[in-house]
Amino acid sequence: MRALAWHGRHDVRVDTVDDPEILNPRDCIIKVTSTAICGSDLHLYDGYIPTMKAGDILGHEFMGEVVETGPKSTLQKGQRVVVPFTIACGSCYHCGKHQYSACDNGNPADNQDIGMELYGQPMSGLFGYSHLTGGYAGGQAEYVRVPFSDVGPIVIPDGVDDDTVLFLSDILPTGWMAAENADIEPGDTVAVWGCGPVGLFAVQSAFLMGAARVIAIDHFPKRLELAKKFGAETINYEESAVYEALMTMTGGIGPDAVIDSVGLEAHGFFVDNVIDQIKKSTFLGTDRIHSIRQAIVACRKGGRVSMPAVYGGIVDKFPLGAFMEKGLTLKTGQTHVQHYMPALLNAIMEGKIDTTFLISHRMDLEDAPKGYKMFHDDQNEVTKIVLKPGFN
Amino acid sequence: MSDDPIVHGDDAPPSSWKKGDAPDAMGIGDTKGDSIVGRTVTINRPVGEVFAYFRDFTNLPTFMENVVSIEVLDEARSHWVVKAPAGRTVEWDARITDEAQDRFIAWTSEPGADVANSGRVDFQDAGARGTVVTATILYDPPGGIVGKIVAKMFQREPAIQARRDLRRFKQLMETGEIATSAYTARQLEEETN
Asked: Which ipTM score applies to this complex?
């Protein structure tokens, strides 16, 4: 089959590799019909995530048709499914609590050592996202082996377009969980850093959960335009000072809840961010975290901080004093995708949530390297690239 | 386990002790070996089921990656063939020194073992959480400390293997299979060899 493989920093190629096979009883194989490039794929592209190996197949947002099933899969050939990016067994203690991304068994035993060393306990496996999360081959390919196919993939009714449901795989549940983690109360003002797909879905979700106002912060005019369409007020941090703007817009109180959907590669030419950059290039620190810092300082006393953004390592200059003194609550984590999929599929079918507005480009899987470069170089014009094998 | 009042006033398990004579405190009885490995995992299945699967030693090679074969000789004795660094294997006869159904199994190697070892596996009913399984192993690394470092380089070191084996045991008991990120049968074979 053809698949998009990582070969190094800013080097991804479509290679011909072996077709996947059923290896465990609960596996299925799907033939991919749509797969997206995620903002977090750019972290891999830029070489920020450790434990990548040349030849690793990328992609964790994908859907397709079931073409083969193991004896314990509950799926049937021909069914169309969206696959969650988190690989969860459905049988362990954490899955029982619907904390699917904390699954004990989705990550192969040998790979769990790395997570144990870094984080104290290993996390679940993820598709196409380094060996830290299992080393699973991802979905930017013609075919994918999907483990635990009896608990992960959700079946899509006939006649529903790929583009309307593809984002159930990651970014829609991630945006929804981000808003849920902000514990929004009716009438709240919520500030969202980063108007990438997760931020934009968090904006929509926050309104659905009863927020009176959502303030969206970014520096890409096109992305702020999209946030505005969903009813958000906007701050462009290249034109305005974010803290001052937020304090004035909230009557000197600060937002009730803040959501950081920027993460690892926070842009912004602030002094602390430049220091982060220098430390990063000298291996003194792994994560650049301007947005979470600003969010904590802006958040009102007793408010809530939600952090869907991806962080991988250890940071310094985290405003722990402000966090403690103001009595904030922080919730975060990789998304428990399996928990949110059914309700969000219903919301899509009922027309309550639109996801297609995001897609700026559709291209053939063969053009994926071009897609990565475009997405990396121009995040104003490119909001989401969907790859479709055989599109040309 | 708390009969070491001079050094240990805490409740920490012997495998985590920084000082004191841990092997003596572990209740293995007939101890063989100095290097100690203690690993614990919680398995979301009833203790009866977990114990029964483990007690049938012919099941163990399914999740113990380095174990080539186990031949059950009689109720108490079994013959083990285990992978060692550089494509070699080591062998020994193990004898169960004590056991209690659904609670623990203790063993020691018989004279003439390539690697002298002893240990115990404890099974503790953890109610709604399932079963807590603790493996405590004492062994004499072949080639002493150098041998231990070599084994570690080849990831054939018992401390690494015990942790991974317990995870595979948990995966098998909880999900009915052992997770792999391979996507072809050939890759899977390369991984497990």
From this structure: 0.88
